[in-house]
Structure formats: C-alpha cells, structure tokens
Amino acid sequence: MTELYEKIFNESFEGILRALQDRLEKSDFSIENVKAELNSFYKYEGLDWDGRGDIKQADIEGSIAAFEVFIAKYESGEYAS
C-alpha cells in the first residue's frame, strides 16, 4: 500500500467506525440497517468503474472494513451496555 492509500483508508475506517458507534446511542438504531448499508458498499465496490482511482478505492475499502469490524463487535456483544 502506498502511504497516501493507507492514509485515506485509515481516515475512512476511523470516521465510519466512529459514526457507527455514535449511532448505537440513538433509539432508532438497527443492526439490520447497518448490514444493509454494508451490502450497498459491497455492490458499489463491485461496480469497479473505469477511472475510479486508488484514492476512491481506499475510501471504499476503509468504509467496508469499518462496517465489518463494527458488525463483528456488535454481534460478539462488545458493544453491549
């Protein structure tokens, strides 16, 4: 990974994970909605547009990784109050 790719990936990962954790506090939180959003990211990544570029790809991959980590932690009970 290039340094810029890593920076974008990490910024995306941390921002998305923080936003998902904040959503846990809301009364309308639904893990099903989170899983549906992850599914949308998978589809978006699969479109593989010509000319997307490494920066956008890093952003998408960081977002997907954050969703996957969040769901795994949620389902393991790590976010239980």
What does this structure look like?
The structure is a single chain. The radius of gyration is 14 Å and the shape is globular. The mean pLDDT is 90. Helix content is 74%, strand content 0%. With 81 residues, the chain is mainly alpha-helical. The protein has three helices and no strands.
Write out key terms for the chains shown.
single chain, 81 residues, 3 helices, 74% helix, globular
Helicity range: over 70%
Radius of gyration equals 14 Å
Strand content: under 5%
**What is the global morphology?**
globular
Tell me the major beta sheet: none
Q: Helical stretch count?
A: 3
Give the overall average pLDDT: 90
Order of helices and strands: HHH
Q: How many strands?
A: 0
Indicate the low-confidence ranges by residue numbers: none
Q: Provide the structure class.
A: mainly alpha
Gap between N and C termini, in Å?
A: 37 Å
Question: How do you describe this structure in short?
Answer:
This protein is mainly alpha-helical and 81 residues long. It is built from three helices and no strands.
Question: How are the secondary structure elements laid out?
Answer:
Elements: H1 3-23, H2 31-47, H3 54-75
